[in-house]
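User: Here's a chain of 285 residues. Predict its fold as tokens.
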Amino acid sequence: MDIGGQGESWWADELIDVAGDLLNYVGIHMMQQRPRRSDSILRGFDYTEDRNRAWAELLEIYQTLEPRLLAIEELLDRKNTPAGIAITEGHLSLRPRNACPILYEWIAGLYHAKVLNLYQRHGERVRMATIADFFGNRWTVNAIMIGGPSQTPFLMPAGIVAGLYRKHIGDYAVDVAQSSPILDVAASRTGDTIYLHVINDQLKQDQSAELSVCGLPITEFTAWQIAPDSLATYVDYDRPEALRPTKIQADCLGNGVVSMTFPAASVTVCELRVGSMGRGASCRG
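Assistant: Prediction complete.
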């Protein structure tokens, strides 16, 4: 079957037909995350000429991912299998092959955060996912750069975002009602704690919002945020902590609602403790 109109095909049909009753997961690769424009600047150092355009091009790539998820979900539904989706490989495919320098920069971290939010919103089927290769000393699509003699390994922006999300995520999905078109939000819960993954993908515009949980009072609030001054902020062997998440405070309005501002081009994870579990969270800007 065609994958999201891209002319590719799944082999999951045959896999399920042969071994469907033995499967817990169907593994897929979310590759082909390539520029859509013939004159793309997402190659080499060309992107440094116009990072606003580079971000617009990354968003164009991002828009190709959900149709592919919907296609494999439709296939699994049609086959009536309970197997989950395991995205065992999936990263940007830019030039030079697997070594584009943009992946050292925060602009790439922002992109990968949006991809993870997308996967989380499809969590009914997507049970595990990766946004990077594993580790190495040359390919920038790695999550960890291990380096050579006298070099300390460090996390690439994709690895930093993945690690932040992994530390602050719940066991069950939560519906999100939001009035702000600017914020990209995914929510989950464990017990009486709600976890929000909030992305402001506007490059110049901060966004204020009020956070609440089905009218229930928020009794405790903690957040960690990555909001560098520039999309060009980067990590390397000499700057491994340049994108370290910062613990932040937010204002409580006194009625169990939290008010905070999400800076432009930022990723924030929030932990909201409530006294009695509700059914959903809201984020109103």
